[in-house]
From TrEMBL:
The keyword Cytoplasm applies. It comes from the Bacteria. Pfam families: EFP (PF01132), EFP_N (PF08207), Elong-fact-P_C (PF09285). This is Elongation factor P. One of its GO terms (biological process) is peptide biosynthetic process. It is found in: Cytoplasm. GO terms for cellular component: cytosol. The gene is efp.
């Protein structure tokens, strides 16, 4: 663990220790208001429970970087509310609850490789690839005249059961790319 020298060292994507727990800096903005000391406004995502915290760091405040490491792991299966992963180096099996993984469960398919986040040697959560491909298993048919008002979207279901808004031209059997952080359609993947 290292202590940051100044507020300017707090950057988006950095992992820091806040209230004794590892947090990822989601947003960092330097703000200087009239007749007040400058602050670094941040949004922090707690890597253990997933909650987002807003906090303003003041000059002189000590900020520790986290002893966080990534390992490659593969998703094996889901059993009830438990999700099992295998460490790709040690072949050790690790499981997380549905509550711990949150919205990430919508994008888990068998064999997908994820980053296993460990804090002080203990697995705390996973990190999905930023964009992933999914097969559409159900999509409503486009009706002539639906697109008269411009870009119209419809709901489609992916192979994992996740419902996503897609353009009207997407049909059942298509492969699409989804942003796993926002849950939004990115593009159709050509075979």
């Amino acid at each position: 663990m290292a202590i940051l020298g100044s507020l300017n060292d707090i950057k988006q994507g950095l992992t820091i220790i806040y209230a004794g727990e590892p947090c990822k800096v989601v947003l960092a903005k330097f703000v200087r208001m009239q007749q007040r000391k400058p602050v670094m406004q941040t949004k922090l995502r707690n890597l253990i429970n997933g909650k987002v915290i807003e906090y303003n760091f003041k000059p002189g405040e000590k900020v520790e970087t986290g002893d966080l490491s990534n390992k490659k792991a593969s998703f094996l299966y889901a059993a009830g509310s438990e999700y099992a992963f295998m460490d790709n180096e040690t072949y050790e099996q690790i499981s997380f609850t549905k509550e711990k993984l949150g919205e990430q469960i919508n994008f888990l398919k068998e064999g997908v490789e994820v980053n296993l986040l460990t804090f002080n040697g203990q697995p705390i959560n996973i990190e999905l690839p930023a964009k992933m491909n999914f097969k559409i298993t159900a999509a409503a048919e486009a009706v002539k005249g639906d697109s008269a008002q411009g870009r119209v979207m419809k709901t489609a279901e992916t192979e994992t059961g996740f419902n996503v808004l897609v353009p009207m031209f997407i049909k059942e059997g298509d492969i699409i790319k989804i942003n796993t952080e926002t849950g939004e359609y990115v593009e159709r993947v050509t075979n």
